[in-house]
Automatic annotation (TrEMBL):
GO terms for biological process: tRNA methylation; tRNA wobble uridine modification. One of its GO terms (molecular function) is GTP binding. The chain crosses the membrane at residues 12-39. One of its GO terms (cellular component) is cytoplasm. This is Small GTP-binding protein. Pfam families: MMR_HSR1. InterPro entries: G_TrmE (IPR031168), GTP-bd (IPR006073), MnmE_dom2 (IPR027368), P-loop_NTPase (IPR027417), Small_GTP-bd (IPR005225), TrmE/GcvT-like (IPR027266). The keyword Manganese does not apply. The keyword Transmembrane applies. Keywords: Membrane, Transmembrane, Transmembrane helix. CDD domains: trmE. It comes from the Bacteria.
Amino acid sequence: MATPSPNISAPLFAVLSPAGAAAIAVIAIWGEAALATLARTFRPLGTKQQTLPLKERVGSVLVGHWQSDLDGEAEEELVVALVAPDAAEISCHGGRSAVARITQSLAREGCVLVDPALYVARSTCDALKLQAMERLTRAKTSLAAAHLLDQTRGALSSAVRYMIDSLERGDVAGARRQIKDLLTTARQAIHLTEPYRVTIVGRPNAGKSALLNQLVGYARAMVFDQPGTTRDVVQVTTALGGYAVEISDTAGVRETSEPIEREGIERTLASIATCDLALLVFDQSAPLTADDQAFLAQVLPRLTAALIVVGNKSDLPPQCSFEQLAAINTTIARAPSLSASALTGAGIRELLALLEKQLVPTPLAQGSPLLFSRELEQAFRQILAALDQSNDPRAIARQLAELLARS
Ligand SMILES: Nc1nc2c(ncn2[C@@H]2O[C@H](COP(=O)(O)OP(=O)(O)OP(=O)(O)O)[C@@H](O)[C@H]2O)c(=O)[nH]1
Ligand SMILES: [Mg+2]
């Protein structure tokens, strides 16, 4: 005889409280059809309709009675909490017969009795999922939201559980590989929750502020035909390739004894030290001078980030070339470069494309586990270091488990 195929959309239910042990018993029912099933047998007080739109009352707690036979008597008084569009918790009298009556009635409706641990696992939200949820509420782009949503659904949590399993089995090499894989995308993944920082630097009057305005598409920074116009760091946040990017326009760097300008230049230098990418802007319509050398001597030692060299004012006759610039310094020689005009907009589209390519070289795979914050990246670097030094894989497994645990 053929076995009947299981109904895969049947709601599941579980008795959460031990039978006959407490005054109140709680039965959970969940699954896509859970509330529709409940509506057939549960009558909230004050309603006579046969089918109630319970889905519209999610979040509320209803008092009523159980009535598995529509023409019969009310069988049990109970309270139903509609906890989700696909889940409810039924509280009834704690006695065995009351619980049996409801569970038998649910079984007759086609629901499947399962272990209560399944319900707990379904509703348990670990600390990593919670962190992702919190970040999701502040996501700046739809791409960031999509990747964070994956993490709220457990992409990272599952990867961490997998690492724990590997360590518990004594597969240290496997766990190390999994952690390293996760760390390879971390540099990019942290920018799902924190913008990339791009700093525009150059000598006064090179056209930095005009370039910022072109990049963001509106007149954010003041542009003026006077060296030393920008005094403080001017920041604008935009999006490139689905990532938030904060662009900083800075005070032009030169030798000066003027205290406010000097303070502005200090801020420029601090901004260079912390950015992810620097746009080094030259005025290619002016010949290179000793001041350029002095400027580069101040800026380049502080630069650890990626670099793009921009020859601005390409609408004017050229007075210096990229070859001359490259001859000054090998860091500049190795950097990608392009010509642009912040006045006419020539080369700006290419510059934006180059910026995107430098900042976001590879797209992150959909659904993949991601270390979406600097804190998480640091935690996994420490765990990797601990794994390299320790001969107790289970202790490392416990450290990983702590990342999942809610305080
Ligand atoms: N012809 C031409 N002029 C430009 C271009 N970009 C900027 N300028 C002009 O150059 C002057 C200086 O521009 P800014 O953007 O203020 O220069 P800056 O580098 O921000 O200068 P500081 O703030 O003093 O460091 C202004 O008169 C701009 O109109 C360009 O691509 N072509
Ligand atoms: Mg300026």
